[in-house]
Design goal:
mainly alpha, globular
């Protein structure tokens, strides 16, 4: 347990140094402002699932790729192999810290949009516990998919094509949520939950 906590502290420190928190919160604030400006408050609840998939999922996958590729480039993955840190602890550290970042980003994005809408005209609150659970599950899923995809690549440019393919497949439920298509089989994709 001590190794996992130590690895998580190191991951959070690295995420702060590489400005992932700055980028994530900045993107979330920009999207919150756009949502408050473009979407009618009565329709926000319909857009939240699609936003979770598109924004939180996409940024989480890019964050995990950036972190692992940075660690490869710096040689810290080679050092991790000979350290007492187990592979499972390394993976759990990435999953937990990046899921926290994704949840924070999603909370700022949705919470910021709801706050602005509340002051402008009023907004209906979504089911907050269910929303947080969805953010956590999306963070975990996209972190794991990102890890599975990035391990064989050494450059971010090599990673972008396979990431795009996985991203498109995982994002398909958003067209169902927005009502663009009525194909219930899209709900079989894990991200539809």
């Amino acid at each position: 347990m001590k190794r996992l906590i130590s690895a998580m502290k190191t991951d959070v420190t690295l995420q702060i140094r590489t400005k992932l928190y700055h980028v994530g919160i900045g993107v979330a604030v920009l999207i919150a402002a756009m949502l408050a400006w473009l979407i009618d408050p009565s329709q926000l609840f319909a857009y939240i699932p699609a936003l979770m998939l598109l924004v939180i999922g996409g940024t989480t996958m890019m964050y995990v790729a950036a972190m692992i590729l940075f660690e490869k480039e710096q040689g810290t993955l080679n050092a991790t192999i000979v350290s007492p840190l187990r592979t499972s602890e390394y993976l759990w550290s990435k999953i937990l810290t990046l899921t926290f970042l994704a949840t924070l980003e999603g909370s700022v994005m949705i919470g910021g949009a709801m706050l602005v809408m509340h002051f402008l005209s009023g907004v209906t609150l979504p089911n907050i516990p269910l929303l947080l659970l969805g953010m956590v599950l999306i963070g975990i899923l996209y972190t794991l998919v990102g890890i599975l995809l990035v391990v064989r690549y050494d450059k971010i440019t090599d990673f972008l094509i396979p990431m795009s393919a996985a991203f498109i497949i995982l994002q398909l439920p958003f067209v169902y949520f927005l009502g663009w298509v009525k194909m219930p089989f899209l709900l079989a994709i894990p991200t539809s939950a």
